[in-house]
Write a structure and sequence with these properties.
Homohexamer; trimer of dimers. This protein is of the alpha+beta class and 389 residues long. It has ten helices and 17 strands. The protein folds into three domains: 2-124, Gcn5-related N-acetyltransferase (GNAT) (Aminopeptidase, 3-Layer(aba) Sandwich), CATH 3.40.630; 133-282, 3-Layer(aba) Sandwich (Aminopeptidase), CATH 3.40.630.30; 291-377, Nonspecific Lipid-transfer Protein, Chain A, CATH 3.30.1050. The structure holds acetyl coenzyme *A (ACO).
């Protein structure tokens, strides 16, 4: 019988970390790493599965806020460190952990990054946001014109103080973006120390600091220099453009790699749009609507005729029911549905990454009036979550 417990002390957190890391085929946290990892254990949010006295599975979450279409910030659970001991897999341990986590989380929405695509759909998570992995040929990347603001390099201590403030001020600019928690920043600082060539620059315009980028550069055996952009946020188009001018005019750089939203306009910034090459498109945000009525009410909708959707949720049956969606909002109704959809696919359309009409061909949603539902759920920008957890 699998017993799920909330862990409460440091020794248990360390055992949790070791178990998760072993499930990922990594070694346990070292004595040097542990002080940095410890602050990421939030009391009340750390779960483990036990068989008798033995810990056999883990999950935990970080509390924060997520931006939804229309601009509201909703309480959000960032699920992480899911692992089951290799000698206990495929016996329902993860299922027990997921049931407990979803039924006890205080937040109406949860997201995670999935190690494999087949794991989380059965628990009601839908693939809700994808990202483009770009490679830029920096040696040929020319941005016409001159910068209008100022870019300055900042040291580690300044970055430590400034970046959380700047991220809070303008980092949540697309549906799916989430706030960062103190443990996230502690880990980010540690990674900066480990990779001592990680550089942070801050942009300022007429109203003060309005953008930042963190990057590191490595050199290959042919003396080519490759930059990885690790973190990038901006408040306005001038900051975005100036920071790209700075990155592409740095000496010695041959290539730049960066994650970007599906609709990121970077190709059109350069004289030659082909200097930006999409290496990959991968799934990023897996989203679980924990409280469907609250989440449907939290976002705004586009113009068009109302549509009644019927939602099926086996794991959290209180969500199952019919909802009338109109430009004025969402409400629970008893009316006949126009279409039916499982909760994982409602998660997939929620942020605007996917459309009802695209899903219709999969036969996993049924009914009619998909185009009307598309118009209501359409977002003006593609979702993104630039905070890895
Ligand atoms: C958010 C994150 O942290 S992502 C990181 C996830 N962790 C990992 O990838 C680490 C390595 N893997 C593991 O630790 C485990 O295999 C887990 C967590 C993926 C699955 O744990 P388990 O306890 O084996 O899952 P459980 O027994 O509850 O399986 C439930 C169902 O999912 C299926 N399933 C579970 N994992 C997988 C998988 N990797 N691929 C395909 N199906 C899977 C099971 O077959 C089962 O199906 P069924 O209900 O039809 O019988």
């Amino acid at each position: 019988m699998t017993d799920i417990r909330v862990l409460t002390d440091e020794a248990q957190y360390r055992a949790h970390s070791t178990l998760f890391r072993r499930a990922m085929h990594w070694g346990p946290p070292s004595d040097e790493q542990w002080p940095v990892v410890l602050p990421s254990y939030e009391p009340g949010r750390v779960l483990a599965a036990f068989e008798g006295d033995e810990m056999v599975g883990t999950t935990q979450s970080f509390g924060g806020r997520m931006l939804v279409p229309g601009g509201a910030l909703v309480p959000h659970t960032a699920v992480s460190r899911v692992g089951v001991r290799a000698d206990y897999t495929r016996r329902g341990v993860l299922s027990a952990l997921m049931r407990e986590q979803l039924s006890t989380t205080p937040d109406p929405v949860a997201t995670l990054r999935a190690s494999e695509g087949r794991i989380y759909g059965r628990f009601g998570y839908g693939l809700a946001g994808r990202v483009r992995f770009l490679r830029i040929d920096a040696s040929k990347a020319v941005v016409p014109g001159s910068p209008v603001g100022r870019v300055r390099m900042v040291d580690l201590d300044t970055a430590d103080k400034l970046l959380p403030e700047l991220h809070d001020a303008f980092g949540l600019d697309r549906p799916g973006e989430i706030s960062r928690w103190p443990g996230w920043w502690a880990r980010a600082r540690d990674r900066k120390t480990e990779a001592d060539n990680l550089v942070t620059v801050v942009h300022s315009g007429p109203d003060g600091d309005d953008g930042f980028v963190c990057y590191k550069v490595s050199e290959d055996k042919d003396f080519k220099h490759h930059m990885e952009v690790e973190d990038f946020a901006w408040a306005n188009a001038d900051a975005w453009r100036d920071l790209w001018i700075y990155l592409t005019r740095l000496d010695l750089i041959d290539t730049i790699e960066v994650d970007a939203a599906l609709d990121d306009p970077l190709n059109w910034l350069f004289e030659d749009p082909r200097v930006v090459y999409t290496k990959d498109v991968y799934d990023q945000i897996w989203l679980r609507l924990v409280d469907v009525p609250r989440m449907l009410a939290a976002r705004t909708y586009g113009a068009g005729e109302p549509v009644v959707i019927e939602v099926h949720d086996e794991l959290l049956p209180a969500n199952s029911g019919r909802y009338r969606i109109s430009p004025d909002g969402a409400e629970r109704v008893e009316a006949q549905p126009d279409l039916t959809i499982p909760v994982d696919l409602l998660g997939a359309v929620y942020l605007g990454d996917t459309r009802f009409s695209d899903l219709a061909a999969t036969k996993r949603i049924e009914g009619s009036r998909f185009a009307e539902a598309d118009a209501l759920f359409a977002g003006s920008v593609a979702p993104l979550c630039s905070t890895f957890f």
